[in-house]
Amino acid sequence: MTFHERDYMEGTLGTQAVDWEQRIDTQRLREERKQRALDRLQDSDLGALLLVSDPNIRYVTGLAMTGGSGADHYTLLTEDGDIVHWDTADHASNQRKNCPWLDDIRYACPGLGNVPRASGRDSARQFLLSKMAELVAGAMEEYGVGNERLGLDIGNQGLVNALEDAGVEVDTGTAQDVMLDARKTKTEDEIECLRMVAAICEAGFQRITETAKPGMKENEIWGEAAQELWRHGAFVGGGYLTSGPNTWPKHQANTTDRMLRPGDLVYADFYNIGYLGYRSCYYRTFSMGEPTQEQKDAYEIARDNLYDVLERIEPGATTDEIAKGFPDMAGEHADYYGAEEPWQMTTNHWAHGLGLQLYETPLIWRGLSPEHPIEIEEGMTMAVETQEPAGRQGVRVEEMVVVRENGVELLSQWPVEEITRIE
């Protein structure tokens, strides 16, 4: 099987900033993302966007949103390309010093999230919502879009009502479509961020091979792997490592204090590991010693299912046709779960988009794609994952890819032909 080959010396040149080699251009990354969002905004009938979703804020501003207490930061993007960003006092003052590409940063009133929730009074919550809406309406007037429709990227009815009370006409559906369309294909700098986070995950896999041995606990090994990820500059926002009977069926996705034993299968899921905000989803399976024939056979099934799907992905292909590469209900072992419909088998075999969130467009899945297909576009990035039971244990395998003109480019490079054996 053939996949897209990168050009010579293209990709993962280093995580540091240097003046002697072109690497990820963060200024270009910010500018191109903002321009994509602005282009879609100008093609719509909206005059401005109010972004409350953290990934959307980061996409337009470049600010590393971490969730916080919820809606204590939000961003206005106008049809003329002006940006107003509101944040908490400490964050806003820091951003004013360190983010020269943003010239209008204001103190936020947290109308949603933990602050109003903790206030204990409806009157306090209404005050915060009204003040937030007042700030946004005032900024729209300042920038000449006060009489235009405002796109809101979340569907919070309380905020919608507060904005409308402040004289703003609000549209939620269009704003979400604008941002989904802007983010569904990636720039080369975004792709390089995903390629980099894949490389960092591989450093984590290597640490597992050097650390795992009988008597070590899952959480000890995971701690070693997470340390390696942080060492390379990653944000570790998720992930886990499981072993033996914890590997199938997929349980709570928790790393436990179970001790590894000879003959165990081990798999690591490096999901939600971030580099400059771009999130991974990357599985590999390991064996403690020589895997049994049953384990080898299960791994071969999972890998072949995965690559069947990968070979179907190309620009112009539709997700309903690609989803046929995933196992049917028998191959999903639906009888084990007591499942009767494909939609009941969420996350076991599917492909999902990757970017500033773990799940972005597209989603390829037998539970959805046959009746609701979409077309694959060049520049989409995604993770494709499969699993298979092996007796009382199981294997999982996953690749991170970008759709190219002639198929997919593998962003992930950890060996996939066989289970990685740990002596």
TrEMBL record:
Pfam families membership: Creatinase_N (PF01321), Peptidase_M24 (PF00557)
A GO MF term: aminopeptidase activity
Highest taxon listed in the record's lineage: Archaea
Residue ranges occupied by any Creatinase N-terminal domain in the UniProt entry: 33-153
Keywords: Aminopeptidase, Hydrolase, Protease
Domain Peptidase M24: start-end pairs: 192-405
Protein name per Swiss-Prot or TrEMBL: Xaa-Pro aminopeptidase
Natural source organism: Halovenus aranensis
